């Protein structure tokens, strides 16, 4: 797929799998995982995104996209001097509440707005409503800490039973059947989940509900539904507990596993081989997503039941929630400027480098078009 760049920051198409040709924001290099910042001055093209942006922009929500947002904010503010973007990483639920209370310019959420949340948004979005802009894709990694076990395969029914406290020991017959060569200890499983409302929880629930219908009877909600287990705050909190506790298992975005060197589960989907949680494998699953929203709403439908070779099925798409109309005049230009950057080739390229997956090209083009039309 061709990438085009002309007269500054114009619309560019970025495929979920074709990120190698993406342009690099030259303002300040990248995150610590990829090397320290560069002293190269921003080019006129990268500076063009800053037009009319000014003042302070507050945003909050999804902790799933925190690592991506940290990179975006750092690079954007290095280019757009005089603009301050503050993203509070909390949870999808808290972000949507803040958005519908009018205290933030946009919110991050790992799940699309519910009908009642859209209705609430109309009180803030004068003459319009909140819409979903898919901005970050990636795998929900199932991280584990089990001394002596360097590789672990699980399938959906086994995962469901583990997180529902039906399988309680690592030497359970179901786990042994999937890992015949592993030396599984007779050790209690300590399953960790999110303590607060979380879109990551909801997306895991959607996967289990679609693929383990006999073993996961809960609705896919942001609040953890199953009894038992242990709770921790945010993806970072769950990852920290899994890192520290021998016998632990939990779920969080791949970037947390990568940064803390946490082992992740390969998923037996019925494909020719178990699938590892990687950005590339998540991209293969997300590439099949279809827009299910109407009008300017770009909410996506994901196929959690895919059995395609190399397609990692436990994925999420994180949305930025903004008003299609009725944005606050004092922050509208900055919201459009910042989201233009995050949806650009520059912004999307950073996702793969940070353990996320870029949004597929066709969908991302519509995101940029919609951001440009915000009013």
UniProtKB/TrEMBL annotation:
It comes from the Bacteria. This is Phosphate ABC transporter substrate-binding protein PstS. The gene is pstS.
